[in-house]
Design brief:
Blueprint (H helix, E strand, L loop, with lengths): L3 H13 L6 E3 L5 E2 L6 E4 L3 H8 L3 H9 L3 E4 L2 H13 L5 H4 L6 H11 L25 H12 L3 H8 L16 H16 L6 E5 L5 H10 L2 E6 L2 H13 L6 E5 L10 E7 L10 H11 E14 L12 H7 L8 H10 L3 E7 L1 H17 L1 H7 L2 H19 L3 E9 L9 E2 L9 H5 L3 E2 L2
Parallel strand pairs: 1-3, 5-6, 5-8, 6-7, 8-9
Antiparallel strand pairs: 1-2, 3-4, 9-11, 10-11, 12-13
Helix pairs in contact: 1-6, 2-3, 4-17, 8-16, 9-10, 12-14, 15-17, 16-17
């Protein structure tokens, strides 16, 4: 078919009512668009069939995962230019270009019919989650969702995350490495929790054991780590044994709803609450409150979204839900704070780390791209493409303030209302010798 790129560009610009900010290179070798712009490469017209059957994000995601569309040039620049078509139009733009009754959308669909090729629609890529029906956030469904995301191979995650094996936002200083920034984040959590020799720490969503190891090795804590991922648990136990810390750390494959061996002196929840879901979040907060001693501290490290005008209309992006975090949900930080306080916690400190996560994600993308062939062998080409797209797009979302991440320090008050926290705010930022002299108060 002659000059598919020009025809596709014309269709897209008619839909968007403005010039396309990227070049289009089509399967027939044709090319259209600004010559100095990065290119969106449509390798197979099957990608258009996906878009016709699943308009919008999910159709594009399936084509990307299957390798039917790609980018030539800087991935961040392509994503930034395309996302700008939506973000720069306002909060309702994503919905405004999709309604079936919109005449521009209908004209765009009719135009694609001439390119799409033989039916029926292509099957979804193997990497797309096959979820059960039924209520959200049952124990079984949560376990399946966690397995989909985390049980994709420890070797793959080691290539992406690096030696720290920490899969959450790092805490950066100028000139530091990823490993140093992750170490500093773990240490920040331990200091906020006020850990000391012999304290019992519950690490909810313990990942590959990095937080547990840091708390036990550097602060003398006795740690119980829980995860629903068997691959994570196996890797964490191996690391703990090699560190000689098996007498201080226990790793369990266990749902947070099944932990009943409190009280603990402290609880860390780092990148876990995003999996809990709004229907369970108050239950989650209640459970953590019950597991803490009076005066015990909770450090909740959680991604947050911007509030919606209509909170009932919130839904997670189709690509993220189908390929990355099935059933995951983000909440505004204010709602998280309110739920924790409704459960009985007193919120004592909130620290926003949004820019830190953008830096972290860019490092993970660089690791993946640097070890691309190994990563593909460790999992699959489609899975590697999922992670590259979601991490790069997420980095831009943090940079544009579409999402954020916050550490909330909360305490279970004593019966008389005391907190046992230092009188001076943010004492964990002081030098160790100075922090030790701060007065803790029960009043």
């Amino acid at each position: 078919m002659a000059d598919a790129a020009s025809r596709l560009t014309a269709l897209a610009e008619e839909l968007l009512s403005e010039p396309l900010p990227v070049r289009i290179r089509a399967w027939d070798g044709s090319e259209s668009g600004p010559p100095d712009a990065p290119a969106l490469v449509i390798r197979h017209r099957r990608a258009l069939r996906r878009l016709l059957w699943k308009p919008g994000e999910l159709g594009l995601a399936r084509a990307w995962v299957a390798g039917e569309i790609d980018v030539e040039g800087d991935l961040y620049e392509v994503l930034d230019r395309i996302a700008g078509l939506l973000w720069d139009r306002g909060a309702d733009a994503k919905d405004a270009v999709h309604p079936v009754r919109d005449p521009k959308v209908r004209a765009f669909a009719r135009g694609l019919l001439g390119f799409a090729g033989p039916w029926p629609p292509p099957a979804p890529p193997a990497e797309e989650v096959r979820r059960r029906t039924g209520p959200l956030h049952t124990r079984r469904r949560d376990k399946e969702a966690i397995s989909h995301h985390y049980d994709v191979g420890n070797d793959f995650y080691a290539l992406v995350l690096g030696p720290s094996m920490v899969y959450s936002c790092a805490y950066w200083q100028d000139g530091g490495t990823l490993e140093e920034a992750q170490r500093d984040k773990l240490d920040l959590v331990c200091r906020k929790l006020g850990l000391k020799e012999g304290d019992r720490l519950l690490d909810v969503g313990c990942g590959w054991g990095s937080m547990a190891i840091h708390a036990a090795r550097h602060y003398g804590a006795r740690v119980t780590g829980i995860t629903l991922s068997r691959e994570q648990a196996a890797h964490a136990r191996k690391r703990i044994a090699e560190e000689g810390l098996a007498d201080r750390i226990e790793i369990r494959v266990q749902d947070y709803r099944d932990v009943h061996d409190g009280p603990y002196d402290a609880i860390s929840s780092i990148g876990m609450a995003e999996h809990v879901g709004s229907v369970r979040y108050r239950e989650y907060a209640d459970d953590l409150y019950a597991l803490l001693k009076p005066g015990g501290r909770l450090l909740n490290h959680q991604i947050a979204r911007r509030p919606e005008r209509d909170e009932e209309a919130y839904h997670i992006d189709a690509f993220i839900d189908a390929y990355v975090f099935p059933d995951g949900e983000l909440a505004p930080v204010g709602r998280t704070l309110a739920t924790l306080e409704e459960a009985g916690f007193e919120a004592r400190d909130v620290e926003a780390l949004r820019e830190h996560y953008a830096l972290t994600l860019r490092q993970w993308v660089a690791n993946l791209e640097r070890h691309w062939e190994q990563a593909v062998r460790a999992t699959s080409p489609g899975r590697a493409r999922v992670w590259r797209l979601y991490m790069a797009a997420s980095a831009l979302s943090f940079e544009r303030n579409k999402i954020g991440v916050n550490q909330i320090l909360a305490v279970r008050p004593l019966d008389g209302g005391g907190s046992r926290l230092p009188l001076r705010a943010r004492a964990w930022t002081e030098d160790a010798d100075d922090a030790d002299t701060e007065t803790e108060t029960d009043a």
